[in-house]
Amino acid sequence: VGVGSTTRLSAVRWGIAKRIVWAWVLTIPASAVVAALTFWVIRFFIAEA
After folding, report:
1. Which pLDDT band holds residue 22 (cuts at 50, 70, 90)?
2. Looking at the predicted structure, is the pLDDT value of residue 24 above 90?
3. Are 13 and 4 a contacting pair, CB within 8 Å?
4. Greatest Cα pair distance in the chain
5. Mean pLDDT of the 16-44 span
6. What pLDDT shows up at residue 29?
7. Which long-range contacts (CB under 8 A, 24 or more apart) does 18-25 make?
8. Residue 10 belongs to domain spanning
9. How many domains does the chain have?
10. Is the distance from CB of 26 to CB of 35 less than 8 angstroms?
11. What one-character DSSP code corresponds to residue 10?
12. For the residues 1-8, what does the mean pLDDT come to?
């Protein structure tokens, strides 16, 4: 993607660029969900102790 854009825009593999952008968009919400689930599981076990 980066090297292709320095040559000309038609050299960019837009399918790969689209996948990279989607990975960026999905990473933050996915990590927030994992963190929230981890928090609630740990909180449940600490409250039971």
Report:
1. very high
2. yes
3. yes
4. 62
5. 95
6. 95
7. none
8. 2-48
9. 1
10. no
11. G
12. 65
Distance, CA of 23 to CA of 30 (rounded, Å): 10
In this structure, what token pair is assigned to residue 46?
């600490």
Amino acid (one-letter) located at 47: A
**Could you give the CA distance from residue 28 to residue 22 in angstroms, rounded to a whole number?**
11
Q: Is the pLDDT of residue 3 over 70?
A: no
Tokens in use for 35? Answer: 């963190």
Predicted confidence at residue 48, as pLDDT, reads 76
In the DSSP assignment, the letter for residue 49 is -
Helices and strands (H and E) in the chain: how many? 2, 0
The residue among 24 and 10 whose pLDDT is bigger is 24
Closest by CA to 40, choosing from 27, 32, 25, 28, is 32
User: In whole angstroms, how large is the CA radius of gyration of the chain?
Assistant: 20
